Amino acid sequence: MSEQIDKFRNELQAKVDEANQHLRDLSAKAKAAGDSAHKDAKAHLASLESKLKEQRAKVQASEATMKAWVEQKKTVTNDKIAEWKAQRQASMLARHADGAERYAAAATEVAVAAIDEAEEAIAEAVVARMEADTVKTPSAARRA
Q1: Which long-range contacts (CB under 8 A, 24 or more apart) does 79-87 make?
Q2: Inside any domain, residue 56
Q3: Which residue has the higher pLDDT, 6 or 38?
């Protein structure tokens, strides 16, 4: 197997683990419910928003790469690949594998951005809940 494939898998897993840890930390801070926790949560949210803005152009390029691969796949059928194998056309098979790896890299980039976006949405929800909880009246808090 290609080292590239291991790299894609490891990158995706690391991103999921990183987001999970950030959200655990954010949740713990939210439970503390102090003014400092609220400021920390808002700072984390601002950081995520900034990161997503920076990623947009890269994600759009990755999406274009993915679309190009889908179009290429329409012309490269399983029969065509079998033909290349039978005729031992290593260069065609290598070119196909390179394209598949570019597609995987682009898809990984899009997935990483989606994880960041999900983390941002969760952080935004946590901040909104913290803000809502700060104005609860004692009688409203008992009903909730």
Answers
A1: none
A2: yes
A3: 6
For residue 59, being part of any structural domain is answered with yes
Which residue's structure tokens are 């941002």? 120
Q: Between 3-32 and 35-75, two packed helices, what is the crossing angle to 10 degrees?
A: 150
Is the model's pLDDT at 140 over the cut of 60? no
- Here the contacts of 25-30 (C-beta below 8 Å, separation 24 or greater) are 26/122, 26/123, 26/126, 27/126, 30/126, 30/129, 30/130
In a domain, 114, yes or no: yes
| Containing structural domain, residue 114 | 43-132
Q: pLDDT band for 1, please (50, 70, 90 cuts).
A: low
pTM (2 d.p.): 0.74
85 phi/psi in degrees, rounded to 5:
-65, -50
Calculate mean pLDDT across residues 111-136. Answer: 87
Residues 139, 43 contacting (CB under 8 angstroms) = no
The one-letter code for the residue type at 80 is: K
DSSP 114-142: HHHHHHHHHHHHHHHHHHHHHT--HHHHH
Tally of structural domains, the chain: 1
Region of poorest pLDDT, from 11-15, 49-53, 126-130, 140-144: 140-144
